[in-house]
Amino acid sequence: MSFNRDPRLTTVPILNLRPTQITVGLREVALKRAAWKAQGHKADFLGSHLIPVILGPKDRHYVIDHHHLSLALHQEGVSEIAVTVVADLSSLSPEAFWVFMDNRSWTHLYDQHGVRQDHKKLAKSVTGLIDDPFRSLAGALRRAGGYSKETTPFAEFLWADYMRRRIKEKLVVDEFEAALAKALKLAKAQAANFLPGWCGPIAD
Asked: pTM here?
């Protein structure tokens, strides 16, 4: 087992990347596709957006961030992407690997209903990622100023789960802007102050 102080860069086929989360927000993927299409210097963009991965058993590359971008680029016809290997855990058994990943918060084993699953439920490619409308809502909420960008692992999923328990999924799917307006109000409530990036009003 080794951790890399200096980045190890390599190019990997996007379809060979292994997800470490079960879901994405497909609205978020669509936004990243639009941003890619608007890029004037695509090579520069790819060079500045390295995908962080963990090298796991059988030398597989497990994505620990930028799942949405990886899927978006695949859908736009990009076949390979540069990755940076954060840690080499290829010597671990699969069981030890997933225990370590879970303890380092390098995996998010919750489905589109917010229910925890076994790591065997993870897709073998980014094309198998499942849509969670509340993850899209959480992304839109942050961009609208509902909370600040955070380094806490899977912060957007924590916000997604908070909103999942307070907003009907039908509203998110059928009337996204109305759901976002409701989420903005909920995000400022004191009840949400435990969430990463909360920026609600504080009494003097």
From this structure: 0.92
